[in-house]
Amino acid sequence: PGRVVTLLEDCGACTWGVAYEVRGEQIAASLDYLNTREAVLGGYDTKLVKFHPQEKDAEEPILALVYIATPQNPSYLGPASEEDIAAQIIVSSGCAGHNIEYLLRLADFMRYFCPQAEDKHLFSIEEALISILPCLYYTEESLEET
């Protein structure tokens, strides 16, 4: 299993990200897939929240479906230091790929698409992961040097 970004319920918090609109026949198929992956298999609660698009012409927030993590999930790792999370990420992968790539792409997304959002936790995990990676990479030359 892999460590993924997990939303925890916090009434005063703000989450930055992408919302996808599904229509027509996509709705039932998308909800079936997400409910199985996130609610049945994944241990998440389903919530409707207000989503505020970044576009200037968006007049009012729209309702968006989110999945909030529950500690009752047997795979739930819970809170940890940035260093411990980075170590978990390095040894984890999921069906969509390795968690290192997941973290690095997420951090890049936040920098590029949400530069006004200061996600110190995310960037601290990224920094911890990057500091660990050189310790894991070795070549024959580096082994001969030691």
TrEMBL record:
Give GO terms: molecular function aspect only: gamma-glutamylcyclotransferase activity; glutathione specific gamma-glutamylcyclotransferase activity; transferase activity
Q: Which GO terms describe its biological process?
A: glutathione catabolic process
Q: Which reaction does it catalyse?
A: glutathione = L-cysteinylglycine + 5-oxo-L-proline
| Sorted UniProt keywords | Lyase, Transferase
Which Gene Ontology cellular component terms are annotated? cytoplasm
**What's its EC?**
4.3.2.7
User: What InterPro entries has UniProt attached to this entry?
Assistant: ChaC (IPR006840), GGCT-like (IPR013024), GGCT-like_sf (IPR036568)
Which residue spans traverse the membrane?
none
Q: What does this protein do?
A: Catalyzes the cleavage of glutathione into 5-oxo-L-proline and a Cys-Gly dipeptide. Acts specifically on glutathione, but not on other gamma-glutamyl peptides.
Family, similarity comment: Belongs to the gamma-glutamylcyclotransferase family. ChaC subfamily.
Q: What is this protein called?
A: Gamma-glutamylcyclotransferase
Which gene produces this protein?
Chac1
